[in-house]
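Predict both folds.
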Amino acid sequence: MPSGHSKRETEIKLPLTGVAQGRRLLRQAGFRVIRRKVFEDNTIFDTAGSTLRSSGLLLRLRGCGRRVLLTFKGPALVGRHKSRQELELEISEAATFAQILAQLGFQPTFRYQKFRTEYTHPQSGGLATLDQTPIGDFLELEGPPQWIDQTAAALGFRPADYVTASYAGLYAQYRQKNASALTDMVFER
């Protein structure tokens, strides 16, 4: 992957009963691992007045293995799939960049963690990821809408199963049902 890229991201999440279910479904459909399981620690930044969030924008710093990625996402177009502009750049020092963001008036507003394994199919036009999070396991399908629909169907899912919420949105729903949940979606130690 180049050090930075810009694209339009189109995706859905599919809830799983467990990570074993996701592995089995992907294997049976002919998917193969292209990036082994890696721990991701994500921090969302915003202004004190939540200017980005209120505009549907996202600024994220992600540590994944030895890599650090800065991501900007534009407003989402949500229908059956979620689609939005994504600009991403690999940076060398997360802590220094977080200090730069603080000097520009951005502060951490939400942190979430997951373990992610990436899969592809030989005749695939997209990417499947298996995400293990503190609130459950999900398959994420990213690619052209037709590929997403065909792949979801091949895996045994219906459009009614599609989730277009972000992990921050899913965690907000989770916290409404679990008052004792932590402020951030992190694995308890």
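Second protein follows, with its predicted structure tokens after the sequence.
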Amino acid sequence: MDARVTPAAAPAAPAGRADPAGRPHEAAVEFEAVFLSQMLRGMSGGLGADGPFGKEPFGSLLIDEYARLIARSGGVGIASAVQRELLRLQEVQP
């Protein structure tokens, strides 16, 4: 049985135009994924080598992937706050 997992692709912007609203969102989700990865590493530090995240070097890769999945599926709310702040900083001040 072939059990390949393919990541969900984001909808493409129309040809010739970049999606400016998507870039801050992508950056915010990636920021949340990095934050969650660090949080999960700290939480799993005392579990030992045979914990739920496996042994090194693959345990760290699994933690990173879990963090990305959590962030892409709604996360804990950090991405939306970061995105709002990024958009606020990009606004033109009169």
